[in-house]
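User: Just a sanity check before I run the rest of the batch. Below are the structure tokens for the first item. I only need the designed sequence back.
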């Protein structure tokens, strides 16, 4: 039996590189999928690909009323909401703190942090009505250490860590588990295309050659971990953080011939 049969999963940023892979992975495991995002054309194409167990909802994660409408749409379409994946996120163009304008700071935190906060706030009552469920927040390895030139993004992802643990404490007795995933460098347009206002992409200056696993991550790598955390296989896991970075945070790996 598929792990998510008769369950409904809402994925934010669901039309992007990682998000669309997460949507397909849940759908393949039997879930009804609600694709939250701003790109209606991509959303419609994904719904056409997946069929009747998929819906697209326009969702601006920084807007509370948009969240309320998305959760209501999920319940109206499929009867309940069982899993929320807070995947939507944006990167700032590289700049020192001194050269980062407040508008950029606010935009990054509005989407990456406030969007996650509003998602938990909006989804919690629906998950409670469904007798429990799971929330998984997609954070970043940049939330585990400082990174020069990326202060807004780093700050937003550090804050998601505390938000995840607080939500796990508040919602645990309602049988709602809350966990976070910290991806490293994953091969998506997020990495290969410059952020808005940037001249270069992260992939242009970040090589996986020193990693213990010397390759870029793939969206499917993250999706497999996500499916575990959202499923009953992880029924005793909450308030936890999972790093999936091929060893990036460990530092340069010993070369094979020297092992």
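Assistant: Here's the designed sequence for the first item:
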């Amino acid at each position: 039996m598929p792990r998510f049969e008769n369950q409904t999963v809402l994925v934010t940023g669901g039309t992007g590189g990682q998000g669309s892979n997460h949507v397909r992975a849940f759908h393949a495991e039997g879930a009804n999928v609600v694709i939250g995002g701003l790109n209606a054309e991509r959303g419609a194409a994904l719904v056409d690909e997946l069929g009747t167990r998929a819906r697209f909802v326009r969702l601006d994660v920084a807007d509370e009323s948009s969240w309320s409408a998305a959760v209501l749409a999920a319940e109206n379409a499929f009867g309940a909401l069982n899993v929320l994946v807070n995947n939507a996120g944006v990167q700032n163009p590289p700049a020192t703190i001194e050269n980062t304008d407040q508008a950029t700071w606010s935009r990054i935190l509005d989407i990456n942090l406030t969007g996650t906060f509003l998602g938990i706030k909006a989804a919690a009552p629906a998950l409670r009505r469904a007798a429990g469920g799971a929330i998984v927040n997609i954070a970043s390895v940049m939330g585990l250490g400082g990174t020069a030139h990326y202060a807004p993004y780093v700050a937003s992802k550090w804050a998601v860590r505390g938000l995840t643990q607080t939500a796990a404490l508040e919602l645990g007795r309602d049988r709602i588990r809350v966990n976070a995933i910290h991806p490293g460098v994953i091969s998506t347009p997020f990495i290969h295309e410059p952020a808005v206002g940037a001249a270069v992409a992260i992939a242009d200056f970040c090589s996986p050659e020193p990693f213990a696993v010397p390759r870029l991550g793939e969206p499917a790598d993250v999706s497999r971990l996500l499916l575990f955390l959202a499923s009953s296989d992880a029924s005793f896991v909450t308030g936890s953080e999972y790093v999936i970075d091929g060893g990036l945070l460990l530092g340069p790996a010993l070369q094979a011939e020297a092992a």
